[in-house]
Amino acid sequence: MTKARDIADFKFENITDTGTEGTKVASGTTGQRGSTTGQFRFNTTTNLAEYYTGTDFKSIDAPPTVASINPTSATTTGVSIVITGTNFQTGATVKFIGNDGTEYASPSVTVNSSTQVTATTPASLLPSSKEPYDVQVSNTSGLSGTGTDLLDTGGVPAWSTASGQIGGNIIEGDAVSTTVSASDPDGTAIVYSVVSGSLPSGLSINSSSGAITGTAPSVSGDTTSSFTLRAASGNDNTDRAFNIVVKENPVIQTNLNYDWRAVDFSGSAGTISSGTNVGSCFGSRVNASVFSGSSDTNYGDLTFTTNDSYAPSGKCFTFANNGVVQIQANSQANYNTYFNSPSSYTWVMWFDWGGNSREGFYSRYGTSGDTDGTIYHFNHMMDSTTQFHYNQSGPNLAAANLSNGTWQITSGNQWQHIVISYDHTTGDQKWYIDGSLYGTVAMGTNGGSGMSAYNNNQTPHTLGGRTDDTQKFTGKIAEARTYRAALSASQVSAEWTATKGNYGRS
User: Fold this and answer.
1) Which CATH number fits domain 65-151: 2.60.120.590, 2.60.40.10, 3.40.50.740, 3.20.20.70?
2) pTM over 0.70
3) Best CATH choice for the domain 158-247 from the list 2.60.40.420, 2.60.120.1130, 2.40.160.20, 2.60.40.60
4) Dihedral sign, Cα of residue 388, residue 394, residue 400, residue 401
5) Are 504 and 415 spatial neighbours (Cβ–Cβ below 8 Å)?
6) Given phi > 0 = left and psi -120 to 50 = alpha, else beta, which region is 383?
7) Is the distance from CB of 410 to CB of 392 less than 8 angstroms?
8) What is the mean pLDDT of each run of 10 residues along the chain (506 residues)?
């Protein structure tokens, strides 16, 4: 009979362990460990299963996890950082790992519970050039967990854009482009976002550049949108309150229907001959053509300019005290509809005056050939650099002259904004220069007053001089329009503010 060999001499392959209670393995303290590679045992000192790699023992356990820290910034040494996570064990260590992989051990770690550890930053300042830092917690088992990009060590972002209103004067329908700006003292890229409130509808912010762009929404009155923007660099952030004001367009309103508008010019620059149809400059409602009286032959003195520095798209009419532009409806019916029916009105235009005295810029000067048997006149002209002259005459009309020493006009190389608004209800005609009221003419409200009194079916309005071909204008005219309503002072001011930048005014 063969002597039984020691159990250690037997080899077991493909062993199946059955039952419900589990398999009993060798157990003992750390001091009782063996030294054979592949040994598997339960360590009663650590209360963890472990195995030997041939070099050291590895514990088998669930690793710790790192979810968050507080605070998230450490700009000085010895900052106490509270780490929240799971599976933290007594004796755990903490490291702060820079973005280049450099490890910095915490000199003081306290395991408060299995879900919380308190660790201090090193006695030497963590370099801000290596932020953001990962935070790693390692248990005595050798297992570790890491939270990425949790700790910043530089300064917080600083806003360079002042709080309050941004974007300047924004009119509904405007293409908006304004930029907010902040910087990080460590050079970290800034991320912009809206954290409360909202931008006006149609606008958005670029998170990288801080540019706020889009199209201003339609509003029924001046509308303020308040919001708070955040400038973030890593985990550091600074908030600031801003607002954007979108103003109702004083020109494009449902109750103000312009009849013609000399701004959207087509064609090329150059000399304009007598009778040239320039109706494309005004739209489909009117027929506008160049006219000069029989005594004048140099029609080339009126030119169409496309490269002016300030006129919209560089386009305007240039007058040289000769030809004028006559504005008439495309048909008799249209003329009645668009010129004769309203009783209140507003004329608006930009001009650059040449400085000659007694020059008319907008006129309707009737003749004896008017089919209604009456002669209506109105004429607007400059007498000098300190005065302008206005007169009107006709049946049932109050004669009026407005002339004082406060007229502030610069002759040559400066665009100016003029508005003439007549309110048939009050009988007042108000003159505005560069957005401010210049003076008021008491026109009256009797039967002949209003735009209907100035028009019949034959005599056109005239841009750049009188209809009878006298008192012609020297200079430039652009953005001329008329409305069948009286603009208020606030609307005039807003219209001036909205357009002055196009003409080099501030």
Assistant:
1) 2.60.40.10
2) no
3) 2.60.40.60
4) positive
5) yes
6) alpha
7) no
8) 54 76 89 91 89 89 93 91 95 95 96 96 90 92 91 88 89 86 88 96 96 90 92 88 82 44 47 59 56 47 57 68 68 43 69 76 61 51 58 50 53 77 78 84 55 48 73 79 76 83 79
